[in-house]
């Protein structure tokens, strides 16, 4: 029955490194919702595109976010692929499903003036160091949480990052990032927190990293203290990193690699941001506005 195949599929995800714990939890919830909607345990042979479309349509009717709908489609396609690989089905019925288009929206970011050093130098040392890794290197807050001192190569001015999908990338460090990391390491050592290569950078004891939630709070408070009134999240600084690079002439492919985006379409949103900036400049400077 379908429920048995779902259980086998979810168990297989636990052993596949490319699926993060977050994705496994999300797919477990999605397939549970799908089964609840079906209200019966059908055989895998009865699973078809129309059957799945009915459930996806219910998500839309219930005004679920487009991102939620897209993740549901991705989950069904992955599950269908599993059924084919397991020789339960000959063809993946979910391949006929279309992923809903995300509405185009501008990302939130700080201006180059708003990230001036003077506004942030009085902040908490840990938060200030995080700021430089988020804005200076474009890291995700989860990537910061997982950093060990071994990931940092001060001599080469590089950081080795393990991002989404367990993919690794190398990102250059700014002079400011290195300066604040040195300050933070000295502070940790003064508190008898070990800073050996195996130890986590952001940790109370070197052995256990701070929860992402705590680091998120650090950045939220730092941004609010600076006077920033927009969304005060770590991702805003990552957006700011990408936007400022493009505004200053960086190639979109370079930005994609620095951000660790496997899909170039994910990075395209920043091109739109820069285009809006160009239009604004044109209106302000052109005689015909």
Describe this protein's structure:
- With 289 residues, this protein is mostly helical.
- It folds into 2 domains: 2-96, Tyrosine recombinase, N-terminal domain (DNA polymerase, domain 1, Orthogonal Bundle); 117-285, Intergrase catalytic core (hpI Integrase, Chain A), CATH 1.10.443.10.
- It has helices at 2-14, 21-38, 49-61, 66-85, 125-137, 141-145, 175-190, 212-225, 234-247, 252-259, 264-285, and strands at 152-153, 158-162, 168-172.
- A hairpin with a 4-residue loop joins β1 (152-153) and β2.
- α3 packs antiparallel against α4 (66-85).
- It is globular.
Features:
289 residues, DNA polymerase, domain 1, hpI Integrase, Chain A, three-stranded antiparallel β-sheet, 11 helices, 54% helix, 4% strand, globular
Low-confidence stretches: none
Distance between the termini: 65 Å
Q: Outline, from the CA principal axes?
A: globular
Which percent bin holds the helix content?
40-55%
CATH homology superfamily of the largest domain:
Intergrase catalytic core
């Amino acid at each position: 029955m379908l429920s048995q195949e779902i259980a086998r599929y979810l168990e297989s995800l636990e052993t596949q490194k490319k699926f993060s714990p977050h994705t496994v939890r999300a797919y477990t919830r999605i397939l549970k919702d799908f089964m609840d909607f079906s209200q019966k345990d059908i055989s895998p042979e009865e699973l078809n595109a129309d059957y799945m479309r009915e459930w996806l349509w219910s998500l839309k009717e219930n005004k679920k976010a487009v991102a939620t709908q897209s993740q549901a489609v991705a989950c069904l396609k992955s599950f269908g692929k599993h059924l084919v690989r397991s020789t339960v089905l000959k063809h993946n019925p979910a391949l006929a499903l279309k992923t809903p288009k995300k509405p185009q929206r501008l990302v939130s970011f700080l201006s180059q003036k708003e990230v001036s050093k003077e506004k942030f130098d009085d902040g908490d040392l840990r938060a200030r160091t995080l700021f430089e890794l988020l804005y200076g290197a474009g890291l995700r807050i989860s990537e910061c949480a997982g950093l060990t001192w071994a990931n940092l190569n001060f001599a080469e001015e590089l950081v080795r990052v393990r991002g989404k999908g367990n993919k690794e990338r190398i990102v250059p460090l700014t002079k400011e990032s290195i300066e604040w990391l040195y300050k933070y390491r000295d502070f940790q050592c003064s508190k008898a927190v070990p800073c050996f290569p195996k130890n986590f950078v952001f940790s109370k004891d070197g052995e256990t990293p701070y929860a992402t939630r705590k680091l998120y709070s650090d950045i939220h408070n730092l941004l609010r203290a600076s006077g920033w009134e927009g969304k005060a999240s770590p991702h805003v600084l990552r957006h700011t990193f990408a936007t400022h690079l493009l505004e200053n002439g960086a190639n979109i492919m370079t930005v994609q690699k620095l951000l660790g985006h496997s899909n170039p379409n994910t990075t395209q949103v920043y091109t739109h941001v820069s285009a809006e900036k160009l239009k604004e400049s044109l209106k302000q400077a052109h005689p015909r506005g």
